[in-house]
Design a protein that fits this description.
It contains six helices and 14 strands. It is of the alpha/beta class. Helix 1 (23-40) packs across helix 6 (156-168) and helix 3 runs antiparallel to helix 6. The chain binds zinc ion.
């Protein structure tokens, strides 16, 4: 999967709320950890956070443009809440602008709630980045920067892990490799990531012919296979490759 990660604010004059802690610091801490985690789980990341902007609306427009131009599969905007008019504001909520992001939003929220944060629900929100992105999009309000209870509970590492699990599920047991024979029934391409072949440098791709190949580990993921190839000279230095689904791979 290709995730567009939008680290809220951090682009003056687009700056976030300031409570007991600064929203800008927290979105950065969570967003950078989340990107790293998704990337080490084999997903591609597009950082949608702009480095400079002339206005808040310019900052928001750039985030949307980055996601749309890169055709990410899911857009994830990370924010923290503040200044709720209700007494004792605290807890997590996730916004969507359409039903396409609702299941993802619910899954992410459930994981955050497991950390102990109050469940404020999945809500419809008219946010610019949700309305104008062309893929399932969610905006996470992780918790309240002006709530002492939330800030006592908050840990960037745990929050990033919860969001990751909400997005891609529990980590598979990678400690037990599943060696097998890969039966390729149609010539296909080995790739070092989930990006489309057309988006990767030609030298990182290798053609794989019809045949049986012993591999050290094989796992089926959403739209591809992930394999650990015994011969690291195959398609450069990498030993992890991803097959396109149309390759008609059979494991045995
Ligand atoms: Zn915000």
């Amino acid at each position: 999967m290709k995730f567009g990660i939008d680290i809220g604010h951090n682009c003056p004059p687009d700056t976030g709320a300031v409570g007991i802690k600064k929203e800008d610091d927290l979105t950065k801490a969570v967003g950078s950890r989340l990107s790293q985690k998704l990337s080490s789980a084999g997903h591609s990341i597009i950082n949608c956070t702009p480095s400079q902007a002339s206005s808040v609306s310019d900052s928001l427009r750039q985030r949307v443009k980055k996601a749309n131009n890169n055709q990410v599969d899911v857009f994830v905007s990370i924010h923290f809440n503040a200044f709720s008019p209700t007494p004792n504001p605290r807890g997590a909520e996730v916004y969507v602008a359409s039903n396409t992001g609702r299941a993802i939003a619910q899954s992410v929220l459930s994981e955050i709630v497991k950390l102990g944060f109050k469940d404020k629900g999945v809500k419809n929100g008219n946010f610019f980045v949700l309305k104008n992105t062309s893929m399932p999009a969610i905006l996470i309000e992780c918790c309240f920067v002006d709530s002492q209870a939330d800030m006592n509970l908050f840990d960037a590492e745990k929050m990033a892990e919860a969001i990751k699990v909400g997005l891609i599920g529990e980590p598979e047991d990678t400690s037990t490799p599943q060696p097998g024979i890969l039966k390729i029934t149609q010539t296909t391409i080995l790739k070092p990531s989930t990006l489309q072949s057309s988006e990767l440098p030609k030298e990182e791709l290798a053609s794989i012919e019809i045949g049986d190949y012993p591999v050290l580990d094989i796992r089926r993921e959403e739209r591809h296979y992930w394999v650990k190839w015994p011969d690291s000279s195959k398609a450069n230095r990498n030993e992890h490759f991803i097959f396109e689904e149309h390759a008609k791979v059979t494991e045995s």
